[in-house]
Amino acid sequence: MATIEVWTFAVATPPNIDLSGFTAEARDGKIGKVDEATHEAGGSFIVVDTGPWIFGKKVMLPAGTIRDIDPDTETI
Q1: Residue 30 belongs to a domain with what CATH number?
Q2: Distance separating alpha carbons of residues 47 and 45, to the nearest angstrom
Q3: Of 67, 23, 16, nearest to 48 (Cα)?
Q4: Could you give the number of structural domains in the chain?
């Protein structure tokens, strides 16, 4: 059985890219904007501001949940 590293980015992320402000999308559409992102070894995560559609809550997602980062469109 393989170990899943949920606190490590599953995709290559250059450390000089700030993900703050990127649009966060799920399989079924946009979920919000990245408010904060960390690049700590073994402890990386993003904080997404989900906006007014569920009353503007912020959610923390482990970096391992990110499947793609597009710096050109600023979308994860």
Answers
A1: 2.30.30
A2: 7
A3: 23
A4: 1
